[in-house]
Design brief:
The structure is a single chain. The two termini are about 20 Å apart. The protein has one domain. The protein has about 80 residues and is of the alpha+beta class. About 0% of the residues are buried. The radius of gyration is 16 Å and the shape is elongated. The chain contains 3 helices and 3 strands; from the N terminus they run H-H-H-E-E-E. Strands 1-2-3 form a 3-stranded antiparallel β-sheet, with no helix packed on it.
């Protein structure tokens, strides 16, 4: 979990690249704009959601992802 807390922001661009490669092989679209739009939409839907929550002891970042059952908390320092 510590590694995920540090690099969760990398998931979105990695998902875009992965979906671009998959769509290139599966659909074989000639229009790069349509392929990019589909890949960005899929990456947005499957990427983690980040919310900043204010608590008594300070602010905290909550990371919620479709593939995790629980919410990950990270203190802002």
């Amino acid at each position: 979990m510590k590694l995920f807390k540090k690099v969760y922001w990398l998931i979105y661009p990695v998902l875009i690249v992965v979906f671009m490669m998959i769509l290139d092989q599966v659909l074989q679209l000639k229009e790069i704009g349509i392929q990019t739009a589909i890949a960005v939409f899929l990456a947005f839907v499957l990427s983690p959601r980040v919310k900043t929550i204010r608590k008594q002891y300070g602010e905290e970042v909550q990371i919620k992802w479709l593939f995790f059952k629980r919410i990950i908390n990270k203190k802002i320092e």
